């Protein structure tokens, strides 16, 4: 018996670990992409600051020329302000320099030339004020300062080229990471599904009762079809989207466009992540292997956390997400399970609510129980659909108001999670008037 249990545990751990590994791998690659975006921002800031410094030096030169020719103190005042801007630019550039020794040496040379030029310009001002030199002699020193500006511009161009080279290298590395993510997720997911399928077969062979064997074989076949249906339909979309976006990322050179593509890749990766999590939860429920760790939960904070997660989804349809739960409401349940239930119900409300609608979560104490409501003013549902929602032998899935697709597993998972925590879930709905899900837990506080 122990040997059988050990084998089952091993078979179960293989797909779970594979799924978790693929999710972790995808998240690591997303973090790398975010690192590239940070470098893009760093490079842009450095180039902007170098350009600002160069323009300010040129402006100081022009203002000095005006002072030499007119001896008007207005030019001198503006000149001093511009020199202060040059010094600030130098300070900002030094703070934003990378650890690249080449860039550090290049900027040291620029800084040295700037100091020499400013010394010449300040001497020219002093000579004009004291009339120690003629205007012609002062202009000779002024023109010498111009040669320093040309040298500064040349070194600035070298620094910009160096930054572009580093950035190109990081972009190429990011494109490779994107491909690795796609192949890694696909391989891990398919391998997990195959192992998971054989896991069900293995368990069925251990059942002694012939009738139970027959019933479980039918169920396993349905589960297999559901597995591969989700793989071929729900997973194909976001993964194909990631592949197309990665190909586009390889071709594009525009930094803003690359940033938008990376954001879309991250969004599609999160969709895959959510689907994989649902599949993992569904498989765990089928195996009755989920461990419950109940604790006191502040409902208002949990709801707010999930509203933040789903805000982008709601914003796409201009739907308001309202957290009207009592601040004092405490629920005794497994945090992750309850969070999954609330997230699934809010997501379901967004899916079946038209533009400019709302989804709200409320709570109250009633007859010694805690009641949680997730309501919307969406399209609602007829009685025949409502009666199918929580039936174990029926998987019901319908496109949302914006043609959103789903696996049909969310409400089943929610029902199982609520019941495993000692609660009940029900639904009230009227076609064209909206839907309200009600969760009831006993008050243990």
TrEMBL record:
> SMART domains this protein is in?
HATPase_c (SM00387), HisKA (SM00388)
Matches recorded under Pfam families: CHASE3, HATPase_c, HisKA
Q: Which transformation does this protein catalyse, written as a reaction? A: ATP + protein L-histidine = ADP + protein N-phospho-L-histidine
Protein origin, superkingdom: Bacteria
What is the protein's species of origin? Answer: Sporocytophaga myxococcoides
Q: What is the lineage of its organism?
A: Bacteria, Pseudomonadati, Bacteroidota, Cytophagia, Cytophagales
**Molecular-function GO terms, alphabetical:** phosphorelay sensor kinase activity
Protein name, UniProt field = histidine kinase
Q: Where are the transmembrane segments?
A: 182-204
**Domain Histidine kinase, chain residue ranges per copy:** 230-445
Keywords annotated in UniProt: Kinase, Membrane, Phosphoprotein, Transferase, Transmembrane, Transmembrane helix, Two-component regulatory system
Q: EC annotation?
A: 2.7.13.3
């Amino acid at each position: 018996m122990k040997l059988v249990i050990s084998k089952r545990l091993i078979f179960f751990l293989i797909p779970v670990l594979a799924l978790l590994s693929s999710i972790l791998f995808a998240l690591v690659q997303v973090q790398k992409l975010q690192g590239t975006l940070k470098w893009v921002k760093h490079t842009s800031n450095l180039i902007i600051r170098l350009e600002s410094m160069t323009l300010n030096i040129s402006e100081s030169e022009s203002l000095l020329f005006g002072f030499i020719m007119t001896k008007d103190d207005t030019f001198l005042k503006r000149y001093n302000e511009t020199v202060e801007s040059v010094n600030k630019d130098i300070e900002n550039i030094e703070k934003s320099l990378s650890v690249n020794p080449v860039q550090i040496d290049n900027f040291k040379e620029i800084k040295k030339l700037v100091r020499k030029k400013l010394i010449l310009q300040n001497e020219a001002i002093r000579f004009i004020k004291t009339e120690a030199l003629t205007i012609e002699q002062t202009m000779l020193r002024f023109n010498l300062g111009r040669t320093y500006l040309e040298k500064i511009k040349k070194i600035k161009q070298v620094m910009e080229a160096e930054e572009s080279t580093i950035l190109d290298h990081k972009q190429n590395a990011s494109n490779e990471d994107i491909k690795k993510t796609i192949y890694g997720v696909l391989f891990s997911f398919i391998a997990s599904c195959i192992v998971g399928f054989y896991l069900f077969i293995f368990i069925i062979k251990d059942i002694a009762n012939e009738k139970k064997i027959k019933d479980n074989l039918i169920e396993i076949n349905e589960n297999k079809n559901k597995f591969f249906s989700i793989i071929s339909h729900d997973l194909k979309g976001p993964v194909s989207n990631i592949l197309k976006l990665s190909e586009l990322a390889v071709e594009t050179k525009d930094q803003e466009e690359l940033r938008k593509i990376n954001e879309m890749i991250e969004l599609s990766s999160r969709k895959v992540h959510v689907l994989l999590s649902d599949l993992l939860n569904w498989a765990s429920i089928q195996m009755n292997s989920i461990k419950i760790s109940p604790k006191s939960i502040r409902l208002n904070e949990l709801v707010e956390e999930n509203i933040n997660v789903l805000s982008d989804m709601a914003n796409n349809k201009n739907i308001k997400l309202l957290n009207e739960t009592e601040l004092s409401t405490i629920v005794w349940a497994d945090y992750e399970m309850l969070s999954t239930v609330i997230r699934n119900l809010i997501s379901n409300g967004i899916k079946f609510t038209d533009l400019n609608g709302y989804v709200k979560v409320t709570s109250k104490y009633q007859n010694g129980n805690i009641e949680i409501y997730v309501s919307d003013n969406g399209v609602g549902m007829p009685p025949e659909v409502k009666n199918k929602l929580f039936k174990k032998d029926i998987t019901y899935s319908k496109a949302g108001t914006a043609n959103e697709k789903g696996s049909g597993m969310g409400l089943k998972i929610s029902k199982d999670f609520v019941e495993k925590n000692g609660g009940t879930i029900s639904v009230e709905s009227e076609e064209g008037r909206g839907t309200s899900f009600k969760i009831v837990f006993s008050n243990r506080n």
